[in-house]
Specification:
- The protein has about 160 residues and is mostly helical.
- It has 2 domains: about 70 residues; about 80 residues, no CATH class.
- It is built from 5 helices and 2 strands; from the N terminus they run E-H-H-E-H-H-H.
- It has a two-stranded antiparallel sheet.
- Helix 1 packs antiparallel against helix 2, helix 3 runs antiparallel to helix 4 and helix 4 runs antiparallel to helix 5.
- The protein starts with a strand and ends in a 15-residue tail after the last helix.
- The mean pLDDT is about 90.
- Pfam families: TctB (PF07331).
- InterPro entries: DUF1468.
- Keywords: Membrane, Transmembrane, Transmembrane helix.
Length: about 160
Amino acid sequence: MKINDALVGVVLGIFSIAVFLMALSFPAIPGQNFGAGLFPRAIALGMLACSGLLILQGIKNRKTDTPMMVPVWLRDRASVFRFLLIPTSLFFYFAVAEFLGFLITSGLVLLVLFLAFKVRWPIAIAVAVIGSFIIHFMFYSILMVPLPWGLLETMAW
């Protein structure tokens, strides 16, 4: 179901204001010029700008768009499957990442998503493997985010 952009923009605007107000209460980080709420507030401002653009787009298209209509992609089973595969892959990651580890889980998730979106096997495998290692390196080594090693615990560097 497609909802008019103006209505979506209003809901997104309310949500972004709530996020901004909540981020104001985040504590300061000792020794830093900015606190934990800096990025959530920046994202909230970006969402608020997008909500304004959605509202303008909805008002502009109010004569041609109905308030609610079913989009064409919902009639295609493959499109619905691909759409549902995104949140399913997130649930899968959260369910098995501690056991399998980040590298294996993210590689599997990326591979399945690439294949579902019709990426050829060799490219899908290469990008899933290389992408998982790059993402792991960035988060684990550079940003110091603890990622689960799972089955690869003995290989942890």
